[in-house]
Design a protein that fits this description.
- The complex is a heterodimer of chains A (352) and B (292).
- Chain A is an alpha+beta fold.
- Chain A has 2 domains: 4-232, Rossmann fold; 237-344, Beta Barrel (OB fold (Dihydrolipoamide Acetyltransferase, E2P)), CATH 2.40.50.
- Chain A is built from 8 helices and 20 strands.
- In chain A, the strands form 4 sheets. Chain A has a 6-stranded mixed β-sheet, with helices on both faces. A 5-stranded antiparallel β-sheet of chain A has the order 13-12-11-14-20. In chain A, strands 15-19-16-17-18 form a 5-stranded antiparallel β-sheet, with no helix packed on it.
- Chain A is elongated and about 75 Å long.
- Chain A starts with a strand and ends in an 8-residue tail after the last strand.
- The N and C termini of chain B lie far apart (69 Å).
- Chain B contains 14 helices and no strands.
- Chain B is an all-alpha fold.
- Chain B has 2 domains: 27-71, no CATH class; 81-288, MetI-like (MetI-like fold, Orthogonal Bundle), CATH 1.10.3720.10.
- The mean pLDDT of chain B is 85.
- Classes of the chains: A alpha+beta (352), B mainly alpha (292).
- At the A-B interface, strand 6 of A face helix 9 and helix 10 of B.
């Protein structure tokens, strides 16, 4: 049992509260990604779990044991830092073995463990090198190896892929996912990149301004966002947001005077926001809801993103990759009813 | 065809010509002259030191650089005089011990001030720095009274204690520890090292250049220290090399040729230290933004 549980976790710096009561239950072996914009408190949460920041109030439990007042080394965790934190004056072998320094195991056992981890990370032939002789991806693997060697209950990753270039990041993402499948450890992973969050997580925790906005599987947060913030944060390009007012027949009247037939807007006269993802909004739909003029095209190969000027403002939609509409053309856009999201304009809460 | 040939010919001349040499202008000559003058100024005292050490006593006040009758008599005299080796030994012991203490204590304090957050940290740092503003001459009397009361006069400890930790060294080390990322320290903390182990195993190896620079500054400073060892020592056996050398001669006359001989020999350890560590000195000075 090496799950993790956060209860009413609060962090204050002087008089400023930056985390406002975080509640989270993590199952044993689960891969949780904390995601959110800069300053949302995700790294602070991770550092509190690691014991690098003091807990202002609330409880942290690791493997059923309250660890609030334990030193980092007694919490049975390992952490991988954004800039690797591998020691330049030590070889890969020493870096990986660093986590075992405090252990009383015999030397041969430690060496065997280093070999095992290096084997899992495919680094056996690099053990005698210094970090300066390694590539960025290899350094990151050493950092992961150092975390693995102690076999901790929980792995904490603090934006570990941010310093890598795009290609390497994709590759390392895959490796971390494979590693999780093989080792089966509990992982808490912090990132500001929603693609990383979607691809890696069993469950995603989306944070903003020190509050959890939603906890759910990648599919849940994508298809049924809890509020406008989650809807816009997850998915790229971001969800189109169209402000309007509900009409009696369930349609929406736009601020600019147009009207969108959605058949389901609740409560006549209510101010609301219609959200629809660019990938759900396409040309040539059966029942168009919006007409716009193509202002810009972004060819992505298999599809083309088109930016349109509509009565509802600028809207992004998806078009065919081979024959996208010309710039200046008027096109009709439609979306399946289940892909239309409605939010309360004042609170941002999801209505549908 | 003719046109292409022309082009080829011209590009060939360009290629063969290489980069044209720019003639040295007046500014450059002036700079060289200044540097040359500066170099001469720096070298002259050393040249005179060696020259004087090779002269007979009657020739000392003759300022010619080349001695008329060069002799190594002075070297034989100094090296055969047992006191010289005693002073040399005293100086070596004092300089090495002081250097070792500075490397350890300055970096411990510098590390603490740099990497730990505690109330009053800034005040402590300013207090340490402010001691740099007090000249040694002002401190000599309190030091002496202290040594007298504690019975440290005329002992190694008496000579060493004021310099076992320096504000300059603490400042230098604090600046260098700023370059050690906090992640390194936090990672080690998670991996189970205690704070002293983190300092020694993780932080210290990463500031080796600073330690080397500090070691050189402290070693040279103590090797050449004169005023304090002169005041605190009474017996000839406790003299350090500079104090001992100054005592050559008698009340009527100063034996310059012997002093210069001793000085010439005593530069050897500093020269060795400098040659080994010179690449660190420049980095240390640049980093601290201070003159040693």
């Amino acid at each position: 049992m090496s799950g993790l549980s956060l209860r009413k976790l609060v962090k204050t710096y002087d008089k400023t509260e930056v985390l406002h009561g975080i509640d989270l239950e993590v199952e044993d072996g689960e891969f949780i990604v904390l995601v959110g914009p800069s300053g949302c408190g995700k790294s602070t949460t991770l550092r509190m779990i690691a014991g690098l920041e003091e807990v202002s109030s609330g409880v942290i439990e690791i493997g059923g044991r309250v660890v609030n007042n334990l030193e980092p080394k007694h919490r049975d965790i390992a952490m991988v830092f954004q800039n690797y934190a591998i020691y330049p004056h030590m070889s890969v072998r020493k870096n990986i073995g660093f986590g075992l320094r405090a252990s009383s195991a015999p030397k041969a056992e430690k060496e065997a463990r280093i070999q095992e981890v290096a084997g899992q990370l495919d680094m056996l032939d690099l053990l005698d090198r210094k970090p300066s002789q390694l590539s960025g991806g290899q350094r990151q693997r050493v950092a992961i190896g150092r975390a693995m060697v102690r076999n901790p209950a929980v792995f904490l990753f603090d934006e570990p892929l941010s310093n890598l270039d795009a290609q390497l990041r994709t590759q390392m993402r895959l490796e971390i996912k494979k590693l999780h499948q093989r080792v089966g450890a509990t992982i808490l992973f912090v990132t500001h990149d929603q693609v990383e969050a979607m691809t890696l997580a069993d469950r995603i925790v989306i944070m903003k301004d020190g509050h959890i906005q939603q906890v759910g599987t990648p599919s849940e947060v994508y298809h049924t966002p809890a509020n406008m913030f989650v809807a816009q944060f997850i998915g790229a390009p971001a969800m189109n947001m169209i402000a309007g007012e509900a009409l009696e027949n369930g349609d929406i009247s736009l601020e600019s005077g147009g009207r969108i037939a959605v058949d389901a807007a609740p409560g006549a006269g209510r101010k609301l926001v219609l959200g629809v993802r660019p990938e759900d909004l396409s040309t040539g739909a059966e029942k168009p809801i919006l007409t716009g003029k193509v202002a810009l095209r972004e060819p992505l190969g298999h599809e083309t993103l088109i930016y349109l000027e509509t009565p509802a403002g600028e809207v992004i939609a998806k078009a065919d990759g081979r024959r996208p509409p010309e710039i200046g053309a008027m096109v009709e856009l439609g979306a399946a009813p289940e892909n239309l999201h409605l939010f309360d304009a004042d609170t941002g809460a999801t209505l549908r | 065809m003719a046109a292409t040939d022309d082009i080829r010919a011209s590009s060939a001349t360009l290629l063969e010509g290489g980069t044209p040499k720019r003639p040295a202008n007046m500014g450059q000559y002036l700079r060289w002259a200044l540097l040359f003058g500066g170099g001469i100024l720096m070298v002259m005292p050393i040249a005179y030191m060696i020259s004087t050490s090779l002269k007979w006593p009657h020739e000392v006040y003759n300022l010619k650089l080349i001695p008329e009758e060069p002799t190594i008599e002075n070297y034989t005299y100094v090296l055969e005089d047992g006191r010289f080796f005693l002073w040399f030994f005293n100086s070596i012991v004092i300089a090495l011990l002081t250097t070792l203490c500075n490397v350890i204590f300055d970096s411990l304090v510098g590390y603490t001030l740099c990497k730990f957050r505690f109330p009053g940290r800034y005040i402590v740092f300013i207090a340490i720095l402010s001691t740099l503003m007090i000249p040694t001459e002002m401190l000599v009397i309190p030091w002496y009274l202290m040594s007298q009361q504690f019975g440290w006069l005329d002992s190694y400890w008496g000579i060493m204690f004021p310099g076992l930790m320096t504000a300059f060294g603490t400042f230098l080390m604090k600046q260098f520890f700023e370059t050690v990322p906090d992640d390194f320290i936090e990672a080690a903390r998670i991996d189970g090292l205690n704070e002293l182990q983190i300092w020694w195993v993780v932080a210290m190896p990463l500031v080796k250049p600073a330690l080397a620079a500090l070691a050189i500054f402290v070693f040279l400073g103590n090797w050449t220290a004169f005023i304090w060892p002169l005041i605190v020592t009474n017996s000839v056996e406790m003299y350090t090399l500079p104090v001992g050398l100054a005592s050559f001669g008698d009340e009527a006359d100063v034996a310059w040729e012997l002093i210069m001989t001793g000085a010439a020999i005593s530069t050897i350890p500093t020269l060795i230290v400098f040659l080994i560590f010179q690449r660190f000195i420049i980095r240390g000075v640049v980093m601290a933004g201070l003159k040693g």
